[in-house]
Amino acid sequence: MTDRSEPASGAGKGLDESEAKGLVRNMSWSTLGTAARILIAGGALALVSRQVTTAEMGLYGIGWAGASLGYTISLNGAAQSIIAVPNMERGHVGAAQFLSLLIGLITAAILIAVSPFAAQFYHSADVGHAVWVGALFVPLMCLGAVDVAQAQKALQFSKLAFVQTAAVVLAAVTSLALAYAGQGLIALFALQGLIGFYVFVVSRFVGLSMGLHRFGWRHLTDILSVGLHLSLGSLTGALWLNMPQLLIGTVATVDVVGLYVFCSRIVQLVFTQLSGMINNVIYPTFARLRNDPAQVGASFLQTVRFTYFCLNLPLLMLAAAPTAFLVVYGGAKWASGSTVLLYLALAQMVVALGANVFPTFSAMGRPSVAWRWNLFITLVQGLGIIVAAPYGIVAIVQALALTAWVMPLAVWWLSKVTLFRMRDYARNMAPIVLALVPAILAGHLVEAALRLPALIVLAVAAATAMVIYASFTLLMDASLRRNLLDIVRKRRLRTGAVNPAPEEAGNRSGDPLSREGGEVAQ
C-alpha cells in the first residue's frame, strides 16, 4: 500500500519532525477539549430542546443570525488579529481588547435599532423580540475573544482547553436553569451566547492577562490592517451559515424554520467545534511556514486527510440513523426532521473537503480569500434555496447538499498558490470519501430493519456505519493507518511515563521536554 502523503516532486517537505510532534500534541489537547465541549453542549441542547417549542427554535434561529455576525467580527476581526501580528506587544493586546468590546457594543445597538424592521419584514412581532434578545448577548459573547487568541498565540492549548470547556459547562448549566424556568427563547441564546462571558471569567482564575493594556495608534493600526480581511471573512462566513434560515423564514412558518434550525444546530455543533479545533491549531502552525508556499502546500496534503477523517466520524452518526438520532436526542416531536438532518450532514461532509483551506490561506497572509469565497458560496447556495423554496423544506436542504459540491474549487484555488497538484489531493482523499457510501447505506439498512427502541437502533446503526467507515478507510490508506497508530503509541508511552521507575525519576528531573509549547505541563 503506497503512502499518499508524499508531496509531489519538487514540492516542499511539509512540517519537520519537531513541528509535526507539536502539531499532534496541540491537536490532541484541542481534540480532548473539543470532544468534551461537544458532549456537554450537545447534551444541554438535547435537554433544552425538550422544553422549547419548534416556534421558539425558529425564532432563535432568526435572532441568532444577527447576534452571531457581531460576535464573529469581534472574534476574527479584532482578537484573532493578534495571532497574525509578527511582533506582538502589550499594546496590541490592549487594542484588540478595545476593538472587540467596541464591536460588540456597536453590533448590539444596531440590532436593537433594526428589531422593529425585522418584525415588519417577517410579519411577526415575535421575530423582532428575538432579534432584540439576541442583541443583548453580543457584548457578553465578545468578552472572552482576546483571551482565546492570546492562548492560541502562545500555543497554550492545554490551558485553553480547560478554560473553554469550563465555560461551556457554566453556559450549559445557566441555559438549563432558564429552560426549566420556562424561559425557552432566552435559554437557547444563553447556551451559546454566554460562553464568551464565562471564558472571560474563568480566564481570570487561571492567570491569563485581562488584556486591558494601554495602546497607541500604531497598535490599533496593526490590528485593523490584519483584522479588516478577517472581519470580512467572519462576517461573510456567518452570513453563509445563517442565510438559509433567514430565507426559509420568508416562505415558511417559524415552526418549519425551527425544524431546520434544530437539525442545523446539531450539525453545526459537531462540525463547527471540530473545524474550529482544526483552525486553532492549523492557523498558528502554518503561519510559521508562510514564506515557503511549497512547504505549506505539502503540509496541507499532510494534514487534510486526517482532519477530514476526524470531521466525518460524528457526522456519520447523524447521516447513518437520522430518525433514531432525533428521537433519542430531542424527542419524538423532532422526528419529522430526519430527512433534513440527513441532507445537512451530507452537505457538511462535502464542505469538509476544504476544511483546512481557509486557515491555510490566512496563515500565508491572505485572509481576503476567506471572505471572497464565502460571498461566492453564499451566492451559489442562496440561489439554490430560492429555486428550491417553492417545493418545500426537503427540496431546500437537497439544494444545499448539491450546491456544496463547489467546495473543491477552493482546494483548487489553494493548489495554485501552494504548488501541489490536484491529482495528489484527489488521490489522498478518494479512499476516505468513497468509504462513506457503504457506511451510510449500511446504517440506513440497520435503522430500517430493526424494530427496537430508538436508542438501541441508533447505537447499532451508528456503530455499524463507523466500523465500516473506519475499516474501509484504514484498509485502503496505509499512511492514515500509520498516523493513527503513532498517536495511540505516543499516548501509551506518555501514560506509562507518568509514574516512572525510581531509578528513572532522578534521570528525568531536568528533562527539557516537560514543557509544552512554551507552557509548563500541568
From TrEMBL:
GO cellular component, one term: plasma membrane
Keywords: Cell membrane, Membrane, Transmembrane, Transmembrane helix
Membrane-spanning segments: 27-48, 98-118, 130-149, 161-180, 186-207, 246-267, 306-328, 340-358, 370-389, 395-414, 426-446, 452-475
Region (Disordered): 498-522
Residues in the signal sequence: none
Broad class of the protein's primary localization: membrane
Compositional bias (Basic and acidic residues): 513-522
Subcellular location: Cell membrane
Membrane topology: Multi-pass membrane protein
PANTHER family per the UniProt record, alphabetical: LIPOPOLYSACCHARIDE BIOSYNTHESIS PROTEIN WZXC, PST FAMILY PREDICTED COLANIC ACID TRANSPORTER
Family classification: Belongs to the polysaccharide synthase family.
Protein name: Lipopolysaccharide biosynthesis protein
Species whose genome carries this gene: Novosphingobium sediminis
